[in-house]
């Protein structure tokens, strides 16, 4: 039984890493896959805790840039502005996430039917935004106004409904507010850092009594798998989006949501 759990954790970790930074909702994929694999996690903690592996993938890819910002923070207005842009974008999710945490985890995360429907609806939204003739005004994250960052942060809050996608919500919001496709995806990367660390810390604290030593191995396997697979995605996504846009992810969302609905109808 333990071997099955480890294999399931490995599969779910790979799914988490491959889907965290593309607009298809990693949470939806992990929860639905866990449902069909028969994988159980106290309070659905596993799905949040393995995200730390994906966070470290971003940090490793952008380490030089982030280190430069940290070193020059006391003296560089540009560095301080960048930090402000990221923290302002994170603020709405931090406030709403703390207030609504229990409802999100005990109600929304436990409703596979809702997740499938949101996946499909989000796919059509992504198709619409990808084909909409937008005229970008911002081509570099460093040029984002602080007000724009805050507005994108409110869009990110939509991702508290599983199936919406954190990266999808921030990317759609950024595109509608004047960002180009590449910078929207990159800002989603940076915004993921405080958001996912915050979610990880809050979930770890809330479920501290439910976790035990046996969970550590399973979470560790998922963590490593998420790190390796996310590393691949982070290194290749910006170039892919610049060439192909977001339509491929939209079709994927619709297909996964439809398959999930069929599976729920057939197997419960």
Q: What is the helix/strand order?
A: HHHHHHHHHHHH
The main pleated sheet reads as: none
- Which blocks of ≥5 consecutive residues have pLDDT under 50? none
> How many β-strand stretches?
0
Number of domains: 1
Measured between the Cα atoms of the first and last residue, the distance is: 22 Å
Strand content: under 5%
Radius of gyration: 18 Å
Mean pLDDT: 86
Helix content: over 70%
- Distinct helical segment count: 12
The structure class reads mainly alpha
What form results from the Cα inertia axes? globular
Characteristics:
268 residues, mainly alpha, cell shape
In brief:
This protein is mostly helical and 268 residues long. It is built from 12 helices and no strands.
How would you characterize the overall build of this protein?
- The protein is an all-alpha fold and 268 residues long.
- It has one domain.
- Helices cover 77% and strands 0% of the residues.
- The two termini are 22 Å apart.
SSE arrangement:
Blueprint: H1 2-19, H2 26-37, H3 45-49, H4 51-61, H5 63-72, H6 77-106, H7 112-131, H8 146-156, H9 166-176, H10 181-206, H11 213-244, H12 247-267
Helix pairs in contact: 1-2, 1-11, 2-7, 4-10, 4-11, 5-6, 6-8, 6-10, 7-9, 7-12, 8-9, 9-10, 10-11
């Amino acid at each position: 039984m333990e071997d099955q759990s480890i294999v399931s954790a490995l599969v779910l970790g790979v799914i988490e890493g491959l889907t965290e930074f593309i607009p298809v909702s990693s949470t939806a994929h992990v929860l639905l896959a866990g449902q069909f694999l028969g994988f159980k996690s106290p309070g659905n903690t596993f799905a949040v805790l393995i995200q730390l592996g994906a966070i470290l993938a971003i940090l490793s890819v952008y380490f030089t840039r982030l280190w430069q910002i940290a070193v020059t923070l006391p003296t560089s207005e540009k560095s301080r502005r960048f930090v402000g842009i990221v923290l302002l974008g994170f603020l709405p999710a931090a406030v709403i996430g703390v207030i609504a945490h229990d409802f999100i985890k005990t109600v929304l995360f436990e409703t596979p039917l809702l997740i499938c429907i949101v996946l499909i609806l989000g796919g059509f939204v992504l198709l619409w935004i990808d084909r909409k003739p937008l005229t970008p005004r911002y081509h570099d994250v460093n040029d984002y106004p602080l007000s724009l960052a805050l507005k994108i942060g409110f869009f990110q809050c939509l991702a508290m409904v599983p199936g919406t996608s954190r990266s999808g919500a921030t990317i759609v919001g950024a595109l509608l507010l004047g960002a180009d496709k590449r910078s929207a995806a990159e800002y989603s990367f940076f915004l993921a850092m405080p958001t996912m660390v915050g979610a990880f810390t809050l979930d770890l604290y809330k479920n501290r009594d439910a976790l035990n030593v046996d969970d550590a191995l399973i979470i560790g396997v998922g963590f490593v798998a998420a790190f390796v697979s996310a590393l691949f995605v982070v290194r290749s996504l910006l170039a892919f989006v610049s060439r192909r846009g977001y339509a491929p992810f939209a079709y994927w969302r619709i297909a996964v949501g439809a398959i999930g609905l069929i599976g729920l109808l057939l197997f419960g």
